[in-house]
Amino acid sequence: MKDAIKRTIVKTVSNGKVFSRHGRGYSKDELIQSGVTDIRIARKINIPIDPFRKSSHEENVEQLKAFLKTETKEHRKG
To answer: Model pTM?
Structure first.
C-alpha cells in the first residue's frame, strides 16, 4: 500500500504568539520549490493543493520532496 502524503503545516500569529496547525493543502510556491512545475501533475498523484495559501514553509517543501522521491520510485517499479 502506498504511503499517504503528510498533512501540511500552517503557522498563524495571534496576540504575538505563533501557532502551528494542519492545513488543507500545499501552496503553489511550495510545489514549485519542491520540483513540481505543473499543478495538474500534482493533482494526478493526489497531492492536496490549497489555492488560497500564499505562504511557503520549509517543512512542507521537505515533506513534498521526500514524498516525490518515494512516489517516483514506486512509479518506476510498477
So the answer is: 0.82
